[in-house]
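pasting for ref. prot 1 ->
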Amino acid sequence: MPAKSAQQSPRAPKASPKATCDKDTTAKKFWMNNYGETRWYDDIFGRNYRAIMNQPLTPNVYECGFPCQPFSVFRALEGMTPDLFILENVEGLLIHRPNTLAAIVKRLRERKSGYYNVHLKLLNSVDHGVPQNRKRLWFVGIAKKIDKNTFTWPADIGSVKIDDFLDPGVKEVAKSMPPKSSAFAWQSFLKLMKDAVASGLNPLKETLVMDIESTKPGWMGRRAFGRMGKMDMNPHKMGQLIGNAQSANVLERILFQALPAAGIIPQSELKGRWETRAAAAKTVASFSK
């Protein structure tokens, strides 16, 4: 990701992906459909680190979600010495595997003889503009030689309403119900509907989000499908892709703080699309255009 020149628009700092890695074929199809050709590796063990780093513009930002084992951090960063790295993992690493987490943080801080200042925090997507309860651990590493020591984690701003993400119009409850053949999901749905009515809610007029352990993403509207709708992707695969995806709003907010702290792009030249709830609402509204 090359630094932006002074002549470029403050709303669109220039950046281009230098390499991407994912073993999931659906993820690869989505990437190619939206971002075009790039240096792609199906397996992290098969990456050509020299080819990635020895490019006309050396990548200075590296971001990934890595497996939970401590050694996997070295594998994810092997051969890489970016100015800034951002890593993501599940909440369970903090709650159920504190020793593993401690080993990961230790390895990150000791990497390249203490080359990086490393920050760690648990962030929830619902606190950063998107109505999704998705807690994830985020790691930010900034090379000490360029660190301006100004990095702070983004402050909570709350969330816009779920309705802002869904198609407007009449709510078709019948089409959102799980099939009766899925006994557990069906019974869960009936119970949650009864509980909602008993609490004074009207499911025919108000938007309800229910966790019924259904794999069918029937609650999603056309906006939510977005560009994936052009890919002829089956609902199960699409659900898996969404379920494994990172929270782009949280990642964008971290970059808004980390890029200036690493001296890559001045904050005055960045546009914070999620820095306030009003800005988040405006950003969500732009998705349907």
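and prot 2 ->
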Amino acid sequence: MATKKNFELGDLVWAKMKNYPFWPAQIVNPPVANEKAPLDAAKGLPKKKPSTSRKNQHHVLFFGTKNCAWILHENIVPHSEEMLNKEIKKKSGSYVKAVKDIIKASVGEDSVKVINHLDLLKSATQRIVKKLLNSGHNVSVWNRTPENCQECVTAGAQQFSTPADVVCNCDIIFCCVSGSEAVKSIVFENCGILDGLEKSEPGSKGYIELTSMGPVTLLEIYASITGKGGKYLEAPISASLDELVGEGLSVIPVAGNRQLLIDCLSCFHAIAKQICFMNCEVGTASKMNLLHSILKDFTLAALAESMALLEGGKHSHLPFSNFLPLSQMASPFILQKCQAMMNNNL
């Protein structure tokens, strides 16, 4: 379990607090200090503003509990399969939910010209590949563990041994992995994406990044890809595992090279119901994706609070569940989550 030198906003991690095991979490923005600090009633002096950054610490959101805390850098490790497989003596309901949440958040794949690290997401990856194959696309796959491609190959995909080989043999390359470090490895490593672009005619290859990552890494990857003559699109996926293995993604935000989007629209339509093109400025789609996630989280928190108030007042959920579909809040998302909470399945 090695610690990482630098963490970026949005990175998936495992963080440890005193008396608790390493817990699934995500690096998030720290609380914002008020411009005007309140007066200390005892001394008549302004109180110190809450710190928005702390040396050698990161502000994290713990999955499962939704609590936030400042954690020392040395007590944080990157999300990995090793951490998922780590055994702990007692697994509470919150811990089990936290593990499920970080798996959903990682949404890493390794096919269609798509690259995956977590075996737990293998079924979702295979579903995406099959959707592309069923819609008439020629699909090539690569995985660090070659046998993980077997089902995709059986379905009709062609397997290559390196990311560079994928680039050389495919016009459009989709990359979706578990986070920033995984993307860097695939792009910059020997026989990686950049090596493949160097062997290709400038302007002939399109690279589509499905991984959600921080702005620093995003722009670094963008500059590297375009610097080697590749066309670039960001299309960060933020979806539940149910969406990936079910009917498909509801919507994917996209920003970057407009012509590349036009060239691969049929691919997007095979895996998502709708595409929302933001603009040509790389970074916009990730920002919109983050804002959407914040809105969704606040909505879920408000719904959970409403259910808790019902339980605290010893009221049945039934009247509320009957009223909600008739109100202005009657969206499929809210109704589905309400039912899940009633079934204790969220």
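Residues 108 and 117 are 6 Å apart (CA to CA).
The first strand starts at residue 12 and ends at 15.
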